[in-house]
Each structure stands twice: as C-alpha cells, then as structure tokens.
Amino acid sequence: MNSHNTFVFDLDGTLLNTLHDLANSTNHALRCCSLKEREEDEIREFVGNGVRKLIERAVPSGTDEALTDKVFEIFRKHYIRHSLDSTCPYPGIVDMLASLHEAGKKMAIVSNKLQPAVTDLCERFFGDSVSVAIGERPDMARKPAPDMVLAALKALDAGAGDAVYVGDSEVDLLTARNAGLPCISVLWGFRDKEFLLRHGACTLVASPQEIVRGCSE
What we know:
By secondary structure, the protein is an alpha/beta fold. The chain has 2 domains: 140 residues, 3-Layer(aba) Sandwich (Rossmann fold); 64 residues, Putative phosphatase, domain 2 (DNA polymerase, domain 1, Orthogonal Bundle). The protein contains 10 helices and 8 strands. The strands form 2 sheets. A 6-stranded parallel beta sheet has the order 5-4-1-6-7-8, with helices on both faces. Strand 7, helix 9 and strand 8 form a beta-alpha-beta unit.
C-alpha cells in the first residue's frame, strides 16, 4: 500500500456502524405508513446511494411517488433525531484517525447521508481529527459522482495525486474511480470481500491499523 498524504473517507460502513439506527428509522417510517417493515440485513443491502434511494428500495415495489415522499419525510425527521442512538465507530477507527492526524495527514469525510447528520456524527465522534465533512445537500451531486470528493480535496487544499479514497462498498469503488483516486476497500463494513472483489476492489484491508501501517511503508 503506497503512502498517501490525503485521505477521503466514506462514513457509513467505513468509519461508523450506522446500520441499526438507519434500520430503526426506516422501519419507523414504513410502520407509520402501514407498510411492511424490513429486516436489518435487507437494509444493509439498500444503503450506499443516499437515504432517498434507501427509502425507494425499502418501500414495496410499485409504491407511488407521493407515498414514497411521505415515507422519506418521516424517515428524515426521525433519523435526524435518532442518528446517535446506537451508532458508533468501528473498533480501531478513532485510534486510526488520531494516528493519521498526528502524522500530519489531511482527512475528509464524504457521505451520501444528509448533511445535518454528517455534521453531528463527525463532531461527536471525530472532533478535530477530520477537518472537512461533506454530506448530501441540494447543491452537490451524490456519490458515485465525483463532486463531493473534488469539493473535499479543494477544501483541504490537496491534490488528487497524493490522495486516496477509503470506503466499504461498490458505490465507493465507483466514486474513487470517477474522482481519479485509488481506493482502499475495508472488510468490516456493509459489503463482504467476495462482493468487493467482484466489483473491482484491488486493495483491501481487514483492520484500521493496516491503513496506518501503510502510511509508514
């Protein structure tokens, strides 16, 4: 693994285990609209392309747009209030970020999660370690478009030549490719090794410490 000076991280499934809170808010919204709830493993497969797409995948096939909008709005309000209920960093993540920060690495987070939730989660768990956190907002295309990554690099005053993207899904692989960055795929997130390899993963890590070690090699 080559040394990099700039790290752009995905959030859900990469730095934070957010699945339970996402599932709870999704099922709350479905329940409020008298729709069938989903198993957590189903919701695991639905995440990655933003919360609107999560809801579109969670509602029954053929659900009309007006009802989908209602489910999404209920989800959005519930999740903003409950995004911290059980969400927490994966083991080793806080130490990894601290080590990279101490080594002078530039770091950003880019997420298809709603911007208010991204801001709250990053402030709570990562403090000053990560200086830029970009979430879903009206003026920027969601991943896998490269816009969030390019905006993060600009905010960090960093070039793509010494940057790497770190994520856990096929969306992250495509995002990195679209932004012209190499991608480190983590194995503790929402997708397994075989799935990632099928979608073109080349560099895989099984623990956050491997990313730290890679910086010193």
